[in-house]
Amino acid sequence: MTETGFGQAPARDRRRFPGISSRTYEHPADRSALVALRKLSGFDTVFKALSGLLPERSLRLLFLSDSVRVGETQFPHLYAMLRDACYILDLEKVPQMYVQQDPKPNAMCIGMDEPIIVVTTALVELLDEEEMRAVVGHEVGHALSGHSVYRTILLFLTNLALKVAWIPLGNMAIMAIVTALREWFRKSELSADRAGLLVGQDVQASMRGLMKIAGGNHLHEMNVDAFLAQAEEYEASGDLRDSVLKILNMLPRTHPFTTVRAAELKKWAESRDFQRIMAGHYPRRDEDKDTSVTDSFRESAAHYADSVRTSKDPLMKLVGDIAGGAGDLGGKLRDRFTGAGSGPAAGGGPGAEGKGGGGATEQG
Fold first, then answer.
1. 139 is catalytic
2. DSSP string of 258-307?
3. Which residue of the set 139, 189, 233, 235 is catalytic?
4. Higher pLDDT, 255 or 221
């Protein structure tokens, strides 16, 4: 049963964010898509009609019958974390939460009418208290943003695509929608990681949790700085062939790669925006109705432009060259695909070879 109210303060002293809008922590690409959807005339009516086709009631019954519902007498430590997360993000209705037996560490937030949070036994066994607190905050962030609605639709359409795979055109149409939803959902995961940090307020715990999801419960064998350096190497290394392979590897996924998530979260944790939020300066929920779709799209476009400008990925650098009107594009394409021009001589100066070295990213 969904509860109303909080009843208790967080287990330790952490800042609370009364009336916080999900716009506070949403990734620009995620935020612009959500604002546009919420502004669409008849959007709620369409999705309520669609909810009748979705197996949400079946999912609720399945979790109720074959998982353990978190509460005061079952997984009470998770229940306390859930209530704390809702208290900190000012989410009055505490979602139902279930623990599901599964050897793969995972968590999700689904549901059309009311969100349901599901965590697997492998995840519960893998993470310590502060790491798990960030995960619970991550899922509560999904609930506050309304991501559970679109995640449920994504699950439904993915299953539908498998069932109609024998219909070429039907399958192609559905997979086009699924691909678009996956791209949005990957950005929504970056948003939820930020929500998890706002709840846990321990960036080291967030980093450890992501590192454990990637490499298991072997912290004594892992290093956060080296893990973050992997993300930098992943972005910068290779040529255009590697850039294409990165895209192909990413397309079937609903989540960004773990090293990329860690690097993105660290960057946000060190930003002025995060410091302002922690100081109590953030958008309020009662201002959401006045949000401009145009401004949100403009902010998203500016984010992508900045990403292209600062990216070390060969394909993104080529896009930046094209946008900047660089000459000899045929030569640049040839060099980027073959890897020629990536060595010391390519830069034309003695300092060019400095890109290849570099140690682990320094942890703030």
1. yes
2. HHHHHHHHHHHHTSHHHHHHHTT---BGGGGGG--HHHHHHHHHHHHHHH
3. 139
4. 221
